[in-house]
Design a protein that fits this description.
304 residues, alpha/beta, Rossmann fold, 2 domains, six-stranded mixed beta sheet, four-stranded antiparallel beta sheet, FAD binding
């Protein structure tokens, strides 16, 4: 039986596991598992978890994003209990009179929104019922996993790849992005995203559970985990005063690749910036293809 180990239990790691053939023996090793929501050291539970086109994308990345949309759409129809709202986009550009003050252009469409804590838990339980094993431990290097006896190791550790002693990934750029979940007015059903000069960033996404996911404070190469509510709240209020009547939040009701590493066949799956959920389906399929390439090499060599 083919044995695969996946490092990382975020949306990427678990979606890869869900996409692998069911007759594979799959083990997921991670420091944090769904349900561990009292730490800021992993991003999946706190993501916007909404499908949007990622800006400054190459044609290949755009294709992967559209494949991700199709996958999320199928999931919404076949497994609505996984948590979703919306359907396919009804895209159009906003008229000048619809734009917020200072905006150059805008667009409107319907999309799919997940509540990540619910989705991750649903996917976690679904994978366990398939017989996929989860091991919770801290991993300091890929060499720590060699004893598991896998044919292929998939590294979906995200920003944690920087600290793996035999990887020390230098091509990742950390982005500081803060969010708050507030109770929504009954009528709120918007996806609001606004970017601007000087790192200006403000979003407000409605969710099916009656909350709004509000983001702001987007800064590159910033590892500070402290909370900066003032600017985020001010931006939300200025952009949508009908939804956020006060600028004070107290009033809101609060990359894939592969190589051989010390005899281990390793596949890397990280580096999607804020597109973890957007890329989840398409990236998992690319990783499955790379896994099958490795297994074909083993078969030809008579080692499988």
């Amino acid at each position: 039986m083919v044995k695969v180990t996946i490092l990382g239990a975020g949306v990427t790691g678990m979606m890869v596991a869900a996409s692998l053939p069911k007759d594979y023996n799959v083990t997921i090793v991670a420091e944090h598992l769904p349900g561990d929501y009292d730490t800021k050291e992993w991003a999946s539970p706190y993501a916007g978890a909404i499908w949007v086109g990622v800006h400054q994308s190459s044609p290949r990345e755009q294709k992967m994003q559209l494949e991700g949309l199709m996958g999320l759409w199928r999931l919404a129809e076949t497994n609505p209990e996984s948590s979703y709202a919306g359907k396919v986009p009804e895209f159009r550009f906003l008229n000048q009179e619809e734009l917020p003050e200072g905006a150059i252009y805008g667009m409107k469409y319907k999309t799919i929104v997940l509540t990540p804590q619910k989705f991750l838990t649903w996917l976690y339980e679904r994978l366990k019922s398939r017989g996929i094993e989860f091991r919770q431990t801290r991993v300091y290097s890929l060499a720590d996993l060699e004893g598991l006896g896998h044919d292929v190791l998939i590294n979906a550790s995200g920003i944690g790849a920087e600290n793996l002693k035999d990887v020390m990934e230098k091509n990742l750029t950390p982005w500081r992005l803060q969010c708050v979940v507030a109770k929504a007015p009954v009528s709120y059903d918007r996806l609001f995203i606004r970017r601007g000069d000087g790192g200006y960033y403000s979003t407000a996404f409605s969710r099916l559970d009656g909350t709004i996911y509000v983001r702001g404070v987007l800064s590159e190469n910033d590892r500070d985990l402290s909370v900066s509510e003032e600017q985020r709240a001010k931006n939300a209020h200025n952009n949508q005063p009908d939804v956020f009547p006060s600028p004070d939040p107290k009033d809101w009701h609060i990359l894939y690749n592969h190589e051989i590493v010390d005899s281990q066949r390793v596949i890397y799956a990280y580096g999607q910036n804020a597109g973890g959920y957007v890329y989840s389906f398409s990236l998992s399929h690319e990783v499955v293809n790379l896994t099958e390439d490795y297994l074909f090499e083993l078969l030809v060599a008579g080692k499988l």
